[in-house]
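Sample 1 of the test manifest.
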Amino acid sequence: MWQIERTTYEPEKRLVEESLFTVGNGYLGVRGCFEEGTHASSMRGTYINGLYDRVPMRHAEMAYGFPEIQDKQPRIIDTQTCEVYLDDERVTLKSKRYRDYVRRLDYRKGLSERRYVFKTKSGKEGEVSFERLASLTRKNLLIYRIKVVYNGKIELRSKIDCNIQNRGNTKDPRVGAGHMRLMKTLNIAKQDNQIKCLMETAHTRIEQATVVRYQVMSKGAEVPLVHLTNETEAMTIVTGHDEMVMEKLCIFTDGLRHGDAMSAAEALAEENLETDFSKLCAEQSDFLDRYWAVSDIEIFGDDRAQISVRFMLFQLLQSVGTDAYSNISAKGLSGAGYEGHYFWDTEIYVLPIMQMTQPEIAESLLKYRHRILPMAGKRARELGHAKGVAYPWRTISGIECSGYFPAGTAQYHINADIAYAFIQHYLYNEDLDFMADYGLEVLFETARLWWAIGSFHRGEFMIHSVTGPDEYTALVSNNYYTNAMAKYNLTWAVKLYEIFSKLGGERHEKFKALCERLSLDDAEIDRMRDSAEHMYFAYDAVMDLYAQDDTFLTKPVWPFRDTPKDHYPLLLYFHPLTIYRHQVLKQADTLLAHFLLEDYVTDLQISNAYSYYEPLTTHDSSLSTCIYGIMASRCGREKQAESFFMESLRLDLDDTHHNTKDGLHMANMGGTLLGVVAGFSGLRIKEEGLVFRPTCPGMWQGYRYHIKYKARLLEVHVTESTFKLKCLSGKPLEVEIFGEKYLVENEVNIGTKNEGG
Amino acid sequence: MWQIERTTYEPEKRLVEESLFTVGNGYLGVRGCFEEGTHASSMRGTYINGLYDRVPMRHAEMAYGFPEIQDKQPRIIDTQTCEVYLDDERVTLKSKRYRDYVRRLDYRKGLSERRYVFKTKSGKEGEVSFERLASLTRKNLLIYRIKVVYNGKIELRSKIDCNIQNRGNTKDPRVGAGHMRLMKTLNIAKQDNQIKCLMETAHTRIEQATVVRYQVMSKGAEVPLVHLTNETEAMTIVTGHDEMVMEKLCIFTDGLRHGDAMSAAEALAEENLETDFSKLCAEQSDFLDRYWAVSDIEIFGDDRAQISVRFMLFQLLQSVGTDAYSNISAKGLSGAGYEGHYFWDTEIYVLPIMQMTQPEIAESLLKYRHRILPMAGKRARELGHAKGVAYPWRTISGIECSGYFPAGTAQYHINADIAYAFIQHYLYNEDLDFMADYGLEVLFETARLWWAIGSFHRGEFMIHSVTGPDEYTALVSNNYYTNAMAKYNLTWAVKLYEIFSKLGGERHEKFKALCERLSLDDAEIDRMRDSAEHMYFAYDAVMDLYAQDDTFLTKPVWPFRDTPKDHYPLLLYFHPLTIYRHQVLKQADTLLAHFLLEDYVTDLQISNAYSYYEPLTTHDSSLSTCIYGIMASRCGREKQAESFFMESLRLDLDDTHHNTKDGLHMANMGGTLLGVVAGFSGLRIKEEGLVFRPTCPGMWQGYRYHIKYKARLLEVHVTESTFKLKCLSGKPLEVEIFGEKYLVENEVNIGTKNEGG
């Protein structure tokens, strides 16, 4: 229940497993490639969150405001390799002479391990094991432990490879384009039991330093090391017999955070003189015990679901940045897909999970957005807007890196998505200081964007030439999602302006100073209120349905029956124009707005939207099924909710999108976990308080999770027949369950919908 | 009246003059660069119409169906240079020691000449003159004649340069991107008085051969030549005294048309052993006498307009391809702008002028479109359409070369534009054989496209995700121009199907065979009729106005008052999204449809469209003012008509768009000439016959032109007070003038609108 495990090695799954068995700590991540080599192609990768190089972005036809450079997450130095030789014979799985293979990613221990018994050509057997751990407490540290037991000569050849390229695929827009050398080696040095490598990003010239410290024991005695280095590689060779253990402690630093990266790495090496594998293991377990105690989502009666849910929680934890330099990229730190860029995935799919029990991480993610505000402002000016900000659709450093604006820059909704996350944070914590320091500025500046791109027509506020979350329709007028989220953004900018206007003390001073700096006044707030109040939504009265945009409902439905099964995702088989002119969705759009902003519509309208849009959705995006699952729950379609949930749950573990090799789908993970919380238990965080509509999936006996909410710790426990809400700490709380108000002093117990709701 | 002339050399205008003084013959064209050099940058260029190389097209983000290669018109071998030395001193204008400078492009002689008196440092004077002629009768021949009279030593150094690159500009989408070497030198040889160069296009490996034959006389005696050649250049040096004349006959061939290009060039050299400058001059004059006799547009009482109108007629003649391998590119053969690509400019702006008096050229242009049908079919398949063709928005060889599909492939209207030109050709000539051989297939296959991309919604036929002629709005639903032109395309496909169904003989056999080959049957024709009849048009009843598209009228008007004058063209200063979300036009769109298809609307609707759309139009496109001028005439706004006409007339001659250096604006030229014919005299070619609404601009005493129409030669002569229509040959004809029918037996004389209309 606390690990994924493989007891066979299936070569054709090796690339997918490289992603699945990633270890990371939010700062660094390393794919689960084989230390001893696989004798087959591998998609090796080690990444530092937030580190970026920039390369020119070339357009077939240039136009004003198209980005001319883009960030790329570089693969950094590869410290994974450690070849093993038994009596001079190389150990590889290719030989097929092995038994008792097992591989695990352990969520409680926070490490991955792999072991097997290898039989040499002469028939002798040796045990080999590989463990690796990215420390969650000492974020710069990654450690490998290689252990070999063999009655004969044992030789280990550990490699530190600086000759690193990013790989790409010129055909698939979801992967980076072309192979590129993004890291340059400045220096490789050997010193006693250490290898020190200083590199820098090729264009941005951000330093990245690595110190690798070896400790090798053979039969309990330390073994002398031989280092061979050249300009791009360092090889360390040790020989022994009977039993050998190598610990390879890798310390990574970078110029973004650490100034002089090598000095910082050396200082960390000094600090960690006593740090070894067992010490890091102990710390890791302690950390994870504390983590799981509050952040676990327990599933009762379905072990597979439990393992999968925890896999997601663990992988999100491994990938999420916890400083202002980093965020969580579309593939976390588990692969090169989407170039390591950060998208709206953060705010709409991952942050809601962090908000529940890891408010510090949530804050850190929000601070990242605040940090890049100046760049978003500059981008807004480039786009011709006198005021406000235009957050980049995809970025690492803060610049717009989208090469195809109809499904990039045109997705202005990212501004409202970020604003939404700040508002959710406020609703969770009522933290006025955080809002004064970070939230207000983001909310005001994003709200301004709507005024810049929207306009009144016959008394209604319209927003033209945008693309909603559904990228299978682009550059439309009045995308429902965009308009609804913009309305919310505007409404809350006004609301917080009013709240802070009435506050006293330091917060008010900060607020006043901010308004002055932004030249924001009552008149502009009035305009915001006005546009929010008169926001236009395309609506079909016959169907009582909000239209995805002004012309969506007049388009023909995609010819699903004539589309071969192997022609999905459509984007890889049809020209954008062919896709755009049909009613077909890549992922939830209007319905996603109905999830995030259910009070803008009636239950019937939500249900109508589900019935209308779901059959039009290909779910070609990994961000889709999770939302449809949640909304199926919302509409009381329990079987569909379960089915979508299961689909989302196994997306990476079963590689159902055939691209898990490029990295794990972070947004899907967040969205799937939301499937339990917002889907099955129906949790919404509203201004009026918490709202639940709990159900228990038929395949489960129950589930349990916690929320930190306004200085309280709540426990939610749903079973087949009951909904229990406990207030484990903090003051009593009023919540809404199935539309009824309940005061939770210690515990509230009611029947779930399956029974009596 | 038959030439443009410059009597001063203004260095800062040299690049514009290089375009203006282009000589060409539809097959080859050479910019008016200085033989003796300018000691300043030059945009040298010699081009062969239809010759293309192909280079990879790289996209910042790839998507399915994006073109991966593109055609580029290569600069070919440069034979222009001939340096002149007087007593070993180089003659250049840079010295400023010259007098009596004059430069002419002569439309009747069909050549350009340039002459001046140069004063050496020692104060001696020499006369130099440069003439060049691209033969309109022998299309492979270009000849330079350099004459020097000087009392002393004269040396000429003529260069043939194979070291050729295309130039580019990465910022301006209207110019090609990046410098590129598109021609490779295979061989340079000297033989007696000839230099022979064999080159080939770098990627497509199409041969291009050049034979240059020198004839040099000094004081009446032939002068020995010295050829110096290396791998990329041949220099021929001659010395004499007192008077020297060099004739440099250049014969160009290419592998597209001539198979073994060098053998063909050598054969042509043999054939033209006796051909010299005086002979070519005589032929050229004869040819042009015949041309002007029928194709001239005479303007009375306005010499400047007369010169400008003839300049346009002449430059179109110089640029227009007359074989199935070539067409007329956006800049003709006068520059590298738009990469030498062919656009809809041909069918909507240039062809109508050719149709009037040069039906063979018109046919040739149409045959080019027929020739590339298979490629247009392949493109339709790529776009996911089971049937029909999708003509490339821009191309040389027939492949789609547009790198930005929202203002490229999405302009599906090019299919209807091509169909329209075939229909106009039919209306002019009633040539059923041409239709059987070429027209029907194009009409049926283009009509099919509308069925592929359109769809019925509540009984109306809609077309989504297209871009109309106005590229300042993109990817819209039901663009008026597109829908109207599609309706016409469909209607005529049906009409001609019916006509040919009833025909007998060989034509019917061809028709039957075609339908069989295309699997076209009555049922499909019924569907075409049905969609044409139920074509949807967005319409505003309050304004009695056809909307440019479904959402156009709900967008805010562009903030013209806040836009600095130096921020035009908008496309160079604003992001496409900013432009797209406003009511702002780059060029006529709905109004252009009202011009081409006036019977789809009422006079009031035309007038309303003019009043509504004109103030929203920036005329950033060179295709705009000419159409607005025509439609101002149509709406009786005579002052505006004159003003737009004058603006269009001087666009290149006064370089009002600041990019004439990149080449002349062919579409504007065609459109301006249409300003006389379709604008002032109000000519329309309809199924019912010719329609006139003649007016005479206040600044003119009158104008006169001819039309070949259904085996007749007609003369139209408009004066301030009368409209005379003469039938110079052929049977009597009924025409409509100001809505009244007149039978023209010999001549019809009525008052123009200014008087009694």
